[in-house]
Amino acid sequence: MKINWNYIKTFLLIGVVFFLFAFAEKRNHARVLSEVNLHFTNSENLYLTEEAVNKLLIQNEVRVKSIGKETLDLSRVEALVESHDMVESAEVFLTVDGKMGAEITQRKPLARVMASAPFYIDRQGSKMPLSEYHSARVPLVTGVNEKQLADLHPLMDFINKDEFLTRHVTQITRLPNGKFEIYLRQLDFVVVFGEVKNIEEKFKNFKAFYQKALKDKKLDAYQKVDLQFGDQVVCTKK
After folding, report:
1. Tens digit of pLDDT for each residue in 20-75?
2. pLDDT tens digits, 193-208
3. Cys-Cys with 122: which of 65, 90, 128, 139 at CB 3.0–4.6 Å?
4. How far is the C-alpha of 43 from the C-alpha of 237, rounded, in Å?
5. What does DSSP say about strands 127-128 and 180-184: parallel, antiparallel, or unpaired?
6. What is the per-residue DSSP string for 47-63?
7. How are strands ordered across the β-sheet holding 140-142?
8. How many angstroms separate the Cα of 165 from the Cα of each of 82, 105, 125, 156, 203?
9. What pLDDT, in 10s, does the model give residues 119-167?
10. pLDDT of amino acid 65
């Protein structure tokens, strides 16, 4: 009987490949995670640090450098990171070289609410505590409590997305009647905004007034600019 060595070599080669694959897979699963790499997607202002995130993991007994890849619960780690007051969302993953990575999106404050215990309102319209690492340069808000954030949020969201308003608005005050007043940088008049409705139309009218008054060099002539009357801007002179 003639032995077909080609078949034998093929079977042996397949066996070696499977053995090497199983060995590599076993080693990969047994590998201990050596490092944590954190990336902040909106890192222009850090309201928390890598040290703070690592401390959070340690406090919850997630010691990454001593845990094998197969024993790390990524969902739990992700939930822990997202539980931090300064985190909006997080995505945790493992790399093939034994490192844990995390893409962290911080919460973004739109305004600082002046209360007995000051806090921010974030871009989701929720209460956000102040950070011990960084103070946001955002407008101040007075006359608003936590229950009234839903009324404030559409106004602050519009201002935050508008370059002109972001540059000029420094303070917003909610009056007892629920109407809002706006104060601007380096200008001596108050903008009476009224109720939070027709936001785009009101600011469009205000910008037109501002450009005309700036051209005529009359911005200092007014003490009040009222946007509550449809297409009209009603001004009160000093």
Report:
1. 444 344 444 444 445 667 788 876 678 888 888 877 776 765 555 545 555 567 78
2. 999 999 999 999 999 9
3. 128
4. 44
5. unpaired
6. SS-HHHHHHHHHHTT--
7. 127-128, 119-122, 109-113, 140-142, 169-174, 180-184, 190-194, 222-229, 232-237
8. 31, 25, 19, 10, 9
9. 999 999 999 999 988 899 999 999 999 999 999 999 999 999 999 999 9
10. 55
The answer to whether the beta carbons of residues 218 and 210 sit under 8 Å apart is no
DSSP readout, the chain?
----HHHHHHHHHHHHHHHHHHHHHHHHHHPBP-EEEEEETTTTS-SS-HHHHHHHHHHTT--GGGSBGGG--HHHHHHHHHTSTTEEEEEEEE-TTSEEEEEEEE--EEEEE-SSS-EEEETTS-EEPPPSS------EEES--GGGHHHHHHHHHHHHT-HHHHHHEEEEEE-TTS-EEEEETT---EEEEESS-SHHHHHHHHHHHHHHHHHTT-GGGEEEEEEEETTEEEEEE-
